[in-house]
DNA sequence: TATTGTTATACTCTATAACTATA
DNA sequence: TATAGTTATAGAGTATAACAATA
């Protein structure tokens, strides 16, 4: 029944939070040697796949505030993994590109995330995985 | 295929993070007047449902570090929503109980969370919801 | 020796508000 | 007026390390 609440175990948001925490914990514990957080890898990955992307575009893709995006972009810029160039058409914008070092770091990160994803996916059949992915996309729009 | 990674959109953990963020954002934006975070409500709820629960038990149920649990427990203790009593059998332990004020706050929070959950659940059929819940539980164990 | 609660500390993520430069 | 980037600031959540009291 919708709209009725008994114990906290019935709350979908509760289990979503625990699941997210478990996955984040696994990533942090197993891939600390990467020197990159999940979020930093996301920004690096999106930048490598979309050369010249601006911070506002990254913010939209990652559903983050502009200021939050700044902090993450600047953290991986400081590591030398991405670099900025002025936009040719709009001088307010900054175009971001992965450096060679960034591409190499991303390749390493993808291997780690591949193992991480296999650990996560091992619980599910292919059909279940497709359903889960569809459900999650429906939640975040 | 497992073990292969193309774009970031194929990464389950990526969508889990976005979904979690979207739900957290909806809760924060719509129920700021509660004066309680999701996490604080969780602790209050578990305490009300399990009178005399200890911090370590809360930590296990919420998959948190003891120190992290402390911060949340003490925050809602400071609001007067839960109170401590020494354990009768083990003097190291603290037994936690919801106060009358805490029970009232929890009742209000449950109404808010009910609306929040309806917003979340509106995307799914009953069968899909059962599947989603099962998947999430499988992830966090 | 192990467990419970505690404190100090630090890092990540998140957001708001206000500012500058540009459109 | 609106947008892009920036900075300052603050709060929430997370974790590690070390300690005292108790088991």
Task: Please tell me about this protein's structure.
Two copies of one chain form a homodimer. Chain A is mainly alpha-helical and 141 residues long. The first copy, chain A, has six helices and two strands; from the N terminus they run ααααββαα. A two-stranded antiparallel sheet of chain A has the order 1-2. The two termini of chain A are 24 Å apart. The mean pLDDT of chain A is 96. Chains A and B meet through helix 1, helix 2, helix 5 and helix 6 of A and helix 1, helix 2, helix 5 and helix 6 of B. Chain A binds a DNA duplex (23 and 23 nucleotides) through helix 1 and helix 4.
Give short descriptive properties of this protein:
homodimer, 141 residues, mainly alpha, two-stranded antiparallel ribbon, 6 helices, globular, DNA-binding
Oligomer: homodimer
Question: Helicity of chain A, in percent?
Answer: 55-70%
Q: Largest protein interface?
A: A-B, 51 and 51 residues
- What class do helices, strands and sheet pairing of chain A give? mainly alpha
Number of helices of chain A: 6
The averaged pLDDT of chain A comes out at: 96
Instruction: Show unreliable segments of chain A.
Output: none
Q: Could you give a short account of the major beta sheet of chain A?
A: 2 strands, antiparallel
Note the gap between the termini of chain A.
24 Å
- The SSE string of chain A, one letter per element, is HHHHEEHH
Tell me the strand order in the biggest sheet of chain A.
Answer: 1-2
Strand content of chain A: 5-15%
Please tell me what the overall shape of chain A is.
globular
From the alpha carbons, calculate the radius of gyration of chain A and give it in angstroms: 18 Å
Q: Strand tally of chain A, please?
A: 2
